[in-house]
Design goal:
The complex is a heterodimer of chains A (124) and B (138). Chain A is built from 4 helices and 5 strands. By secondary structure, chain A is of the alpha/beta class. Chain B has a single domain (4-137), classed as 3-Layer(aba) Sandwich (Rossmann fold), CATH 3.40.50. The chains are: A alpha/beta (124), B alpha/beta (138).
Chain lengths: 124, 138
């Protein structure tokens, strides 16, 4: 089954659910949580990293083996795919926002379109 | 974790990959798997006897696709199959709702869709409207 699961988060509720599902669904897999700071992001990379650390320690309370996490800058879709490739992920888990009447966040959709590895989309 | 998995299967290369993955997941979680195959809607203006003829051809073709799926899946705790008239996305979403499915597994792109489309319109529709997680496989 899956060995390396990359969870892309934008700190939205659906992304939280994505992390939860990845932890429960693939307990034997190595997890990595990624946030991409886009050009129009309200966060700086440092703020995002703090936020991500909080998110991970909150989600994995009481566990000794915390998932790895990283913040990168750039175009979210491209960075998610590149990070997945560089790390050797065999699954990407991403939240679906359900905003903007489309029901599918543009990042989730972009990742699904372009990814060569399976993508699990999770709704809030 | 996952107890009730739906596999959308149209026989395409992406769907075959999805089938292998869905089977692995079903075995791992001891989940039941429901294979959904849809055929193109039959135009009802055809009239008899052509209508019957078209319907039986479509269902025969569908049976062959289901056989192919079963062969790919191998031994599983529980497998059920549903053959429904399309459009695919509506049928898949309906089955997902009725069966209270907790995971939908499907190919990123299906058969008969323009190769230029990176995400099939039916896959996109399922992604957009499904209430449960969706696993897209290439």
């Amino acid at each position: 089954m899956f060995k390396r699961v990359l969870v892309a988060t934008d700190f939205s509720p659906s992304a939280q659910r994505a992390l939860e599902l990845a932890r429960k669904g693939f307990p034997q897999a190595e997890l990595r949580v990624l946030h991409v700071v886009a050009e129009d992001s309200p966060f700086t990379a440092t703020e995002a990293l703090l936020e991500l650390e909080m998110l991970v320690s909150e989600a994995c309370k009481g566990e000794t083996n915390l998932p790895g996490h990283e913040v990168v800058q750039g175009s979210p879709v491209q960075q998610v795919l590149e990070s997945a490739k560089a790390w050797g992920a065999d699954l990407i888990v991403v939240g679906v926002s359900g905003q903007g009447g489309q029901g599918l966040g543009s990042v989730a959709e972009g990742v699904v379109r372009a990814s060569v590895i399976p993508v699990l989309t999770v709704r809030a | 974790m996952f107890k009730n998995i739906l596999l959308a299967f149209d026989g395409s290369a992406h769907a075959q990959e999805a089938a292998r993955l869905a089977a692995d997941l079903a075995r791992q979680y001891g989940a039941s798997l429901c294979v959904v195959h849809t055929y193109d809607p039959v135009p009802d203006y055809l009239g008899e006897p052509f209508l019957q003829e078209v319907i039986s051809r479509r269902t025969e073709a569908a049976d062959r696709v289901i056989e192919q799926a079963r062969a790919l899946l191998g031994a599983l705790p529980q497998v059920e199959t549903e053959v429904l008239e399309g459009p695919a996305a509506e049928a898949i979403l309906r089955v997902a709702e009725v069966r209270k499915v907790d995971l939908i597994v499907m190919g990123t792109r299906g058969l008969g869709q323009l190769s230029g489309l990176l995400l099939g319109s039916q896959s996109q529709k399922v992604l957009t409207h499904a209430q449960c997680p969706v696993l897209l496989v290439r």
